[in-house]
């Protein structure tokens, strides 16, 4: 009888996640925000390459989007600790919605658009988008129960992956039926709707927020760095984010089309199959972690799965056919959220509420900020004549070795729940 009651109680807890009004509103806003960002990146890239014929300038526009976004994740983390996160997300979405509406107007009256207009627009989108993510990450543990944080993060991360995959597809369909101005109007409507969704979310800020807001930006940011570095758990999680993103992002995500073309001798359709396998794996991994909702030994599991990432990456570097590559890369996709989601939940649970914005902002900035460096390092090694399969093969070893070092240097990580 007691066992049946315990099972009923557990089911109530699991089903309660989508009964939380604030979480549902945040989830819907995440759908619209992520979908609009992926559509925006697609339409900017396609217009530059297809309409303007300036493929060489594409990198400038993408840098204009990514670098300000990374920097403002750090700034947004500080603001999330002293401001109302729902207002921050509202401002981010509404401002980008107005910006997209302005772009729609430019496409009606001006053609072709100068490249500097696209670069400035991308920069503003990046700045405003950088405020949304740390606010979302810091508000999540305040609106759901701790025992549901892993599941809540899996829902959010899975939603983002689906939006990143479906956004370009949806944008391509709209472009084929209408034009650029209509697509920007749709992007604007998505963002405006997302903004109105997050506005009603109520967050009770810690009392220490009043004291924190009286400090300058620099001392608050330094306090976040010091807080992470003095906590052995947060420091180890910070190191994992850095190692995984540097040694996996460049060789795998940037090197994937090169690998398909040069090693597998594949065509554009083959690359889409392999890329689709990776996306499918990431969505499946988010769903699996959400269903399992790990609550015990998450640090140890993250280390085991991180080592598995290295092993599977070794296997991928040795694949010789497209279908073999698809089969292996699905597992890489599954392992990515399987490592990241429990770690994010652990950070949110073990961080003081008045510092969670800065901690999440700094960790997001560190992981995303290393992506350009990882891309540059991969490009540099490729320029020396080293094959992409060799780069992938040797990049797997730092992942595996870092697991060994973390096991030895941070015993707390493998014991913590």
UniProtKB/TrEMBL annotation:
Its main location: membrane. Keywords: Cell membrane, Membrane, Transmembrane, Transmembrane helix, Transport. This is MFS family permease. Residues 22-414 form the Major facilitator superfamily (MFS) profile domain. It comes from Rossellomorea pakistanensis. InterPro entries: MFS, MFS_dom, MFS_trans_sf. It is found in: Cell membrane. The keyword Zinc does not apply. It is a multi-pass membrane protein. The chain crosses the membrane at residues 23-48, 54-78, 90-109, 237-260, 272-292, 299-316, 322-345, 366-385, 391-413. The keyword Membrane applies. It comes from the Bacteria.
